[in-house]
Amino acid sequence: MKNLSIFGVLTLSLLLLTACSKESITPEAILEHGAITAKAGKKMSSEGFITPLFGLATAPNGDILVADGGAGIANATGTTNIPLLGVTDVAPIGTGSMWAITGAIGGPDGAVINTGQGLHRVSNGNSKLIADLFAFEEAHDPDGAGVDSNPFGLASLGGNAALVTDAGGNDLLQVDRQGNIKLLAIFPDEVVSTANLQALVGCPNPDFAFICDTPQLPAQAVPTTVVVGPDGYYYVGELKGFPAPADASNIWRISPNASGAACGTSADCMKLLDGGFTSIIDLAFGPDGKLYVAELDEQSWFAVEVLGTGVGGTISAIDIETLNIEEVATGIMGLTGITFGKDGSLWATTHSLNPSLAEVIKIAM
Questions:
Q1: What DSSP character marks residue 333?
Q2: How far is the CA of 76 from the CAs of 42, 68, 295, 348, in angstroms?
Q3: What secondary structure does DSSP assign to 152-168, as a single string?
């Protein structure tokens, strides 16, 4: 069964477990099947975040750029400069130019369809679709789990190419400026514990008997983020799909020479860290050379998306040589993106699903 969620109620899973109806977390964005559906009658505004907020990036001039899925590419105060509905990440190239990706926008009854999942080139305030990533997934389905495309993580390789993690397709792609797509790596399912989900739903619980009686389940990787390391390798973080395990999100290290690498078995795509994180949502290398990891919530995405609870996300720093991990900040509600400013300051999104509270904040280090 294909992964159903990045930010979305796991409709099928919930129907199997509880026969509950779909529910949304915020009144301004209904998130289902990893898709963004604008609220009926809600007009896009150029002032103030519409939400959900996703990736952050820093422009060459120092501006903080925000992927506001409900509106487009915005600045840190919420002014939308480039309309692009469904944008999930942005990666600057130079002054006035950048790459951007758009994820899935909800189809009828949450169906996974081609709603514009793609890589875009943005120049002088205008965006142009470079590659149809849904069409690639539909033609190739690299992970063999059925057609599902939700581009979510993006990294620039300069003006000629970009890297994209497709969280629905469970793969890493390289796309050049002509729209040619190369499959770099495929991320595997892993059998994980259901203990976290059992704790969240309060087992024993007759409404969740299936979960309460099942100690382990296979989970899809759901790669949410990619960055280029100082060593030239590509680093990818996982959200981990249903059953939303704790401490099971991996970080992968991929060779820039990888081609169709089966992660975990190919030497071109091996784990930097085997688990240890919960619901990784973003990565960024800091000026100190460390890899900074943003976890959506310490209780997992299920707590946030399905139960509407959670205790907040955490940002940690990893020395990629020694693998020493240091906690930088925790308890950040609605953490979905991080970036470093030109002055070395760390910025993060908070309350990213709530249009009345969403903002970009500086993290004290």
A1: T
A2: 22, 10, 21, 10
A3: EEEEE-STTEEEEEETT
Query: Which pTM does this prediction carry?
Result: 0.90
pLDDT digits (tens, 9 = 90+) for 39-57: 222 333 346 899 999 999 9
Whose tokens are 């249009």? That residue is 355
Give percent of the chain above pLDDT 70: 85
Structure tokens at 208: 């969740």
**CATH number of the domain that 306 lies in?**
2.130.10.10
DSSP-based three-state secondary structure for 200: helix
Residue 138's φ and ψ, nearest 5 degrees, are -65, -35
Could you give the number of structural domains in the chain?
A: 1
In which domain, by residue range, is 270 found? 11-39+46-363
Token duo for residue 332? 């950040």
Q: What are the backbone dihedrals phi and psi of residue 124, each rounded to the nearest 5 degrees, phi first? A: 50, 40
| String of DSSP letters for 1-41 | -----SSSB-HHHHHHHT-PPP--SSSSEEEETTEEEEPTT
The residue type at 274: D
Q: Can you tell me the distance from the alpha carbon of 163 to that of 185, in angstroms, rounded to the nearest whole number?
A: 11
